[in-house]
Predict the structure.
Amino acid sequence: MREGKQMCTFNEDSQYADFAAEVFALLSDPTRVRIILALRMGERPVGELAEQVGKSPTVVSQHLAKLRWGKIVRARHEGTRVFYSLVDDRARQLVTHAVFQAEHVVDGVPEHRLGADGLPVSVEDSRDS
């Protein structure tokens, strides 16, 4: 398995498999996925995140606490406000790949696989660009 230029050498008995499953469990909630999508462009305060994902600040704070526990987001305090951001790019990549997978399931040939002419582009062709 290849991720960018990094080669994955883990196999089925990897010591990280259980924690990887916990990460997927953390990301299995639609509100958490939406929070990560909202944080792609940088840090946001709880109130703004709540507005963006259509949930109350209390609910968003509870989800953020779980994402902090999983070391997916971090908090920065500024006075009485708390700003959240992604710890690194990995969660964004996982969520992006999951959304692309969902797009394939729902739409067949998703928009990101269409060329300028509206026709499907092969996976090999899209890797070149």
In short: The first strand starts at residue 2 and ends at 3. The chain has one domain: 17-128. The chain is about 50% helix and 15% strand. The longest helix spans residues 90-107.
